[in-house]
Amino acid sequence: MLRANLTAPFTIELQEKSIPEITDSDVLLKIHYVGICGSDIQMYHGKHKYMTFPVVFGHELPASIVKTGKNVTGFAAGDLVTVEPQIYCGECYPCRSGRFNVCERLKVQGVHADGYMAQLVVVDAKFLHKCTRDMNPQQVALVEPLAVGVGAVKRAPNYKDANVLVVGAGTIGNMTAQAAKALGAAKVMVSDINGKKLALAKECGIDVAVNVAETSLTDAIETHFGMRKADIIIDAAATRSGFKSILEVARRSSSVVITGNYKDPLEVEMPLIQRQEITLYGHMMYVREDFADAIAFIREGKIHTDGFITAVYPFRKTLEAFRYIDEFPNDVMKILVDVQNLEG
């Protein structure tokens, strides 16, 4: 079988490996697709702070079970599944309190440990989530980014019936905005400067899509949210200018959730946060319930996925997929690699 190994910046090697063996608690997975996300691009560029080369990347996936270990229950050969890519200790305080996403010894498969850009992968069954067999595997590839969005919305305790602003209309921003709708927000606005991504947000049922290159965010909030303004602002863009604008438009006693992946330290106007009693929440990935919600929302048709898959590349053209993202970043929502397709 083949796997794709990121061995150095801008260097991806397809390697032939023997089929892995499973233990009693494991399953052997046949990977259908792997989505390329922003952290994969950072790794490809050699700019991810928390990974080392070489590593098999990839953590957004649908897969089918090939075989199960003798102690595995609840799963069978042929089941369509996806995987939580977090490796956690289960012993530290965050783990014992249900927040294993911030485990003190957290590792993420595809970043700190080998991931899923391979034709066959062995994984402990405790990390699996079952999807119904009638789900489209390409939709299942979107479960992981949607789970990020679900988790981001849930970080603010007052999300139901709230006015929610999501800054950034890329994959995570769009999924976060849709998650807010599915979780019961009153009204959801998304902002960006990319017209194509804002148009897709409207197609996905987001109430308001604002191009901040044409309309000020302050005016848009007053027009569409009224005097109540935004109860929750979720930063899915992770830019200096974006965060500055968030603090400028945040309402007194509002909540700000940071889910975008900042690359560099950020200067924050702390007196503004203090004097306006803005509650700032950090957000990291998801917990198990967020994955379950994401699967249910897609299965129930609460999440619009048409138009999300920009292109699908055969396995041998994985490097070309990364080069395409670098060349056309404003045109890409989600690129998939079909790891069972060896054309090219």
Question: How would you describe this structure to a colleague?
Answer:
By secondary structure, this protein is an alpha/beta fold. Helices cover 28% and strands 25% of the residues. The strands form five sheets. Strands 14-13-12-15-16-17 form a six-stranded parallel beta sheet, with helices on both faces. Helix 4 crosses helix 5 and helix 4 crosses helix 10. The two termini are 16 Å apart. The model has no long low-confidence stretch (mean pLDDT 96).
What separation lies between the terminal Cα atoms?
16 Å
How much β-strand is present in the residues?
25-35%
Provide the residue-averaged pLDDT: 96
Total number of strands: 19
The strands making up the biggest β-sheet line up spatially as 14-13-12-15-16-17
Tell me the overall shape. Answer: globular
> What is the C-alpha radius of gyration, as a whole number of Å?
20 Å
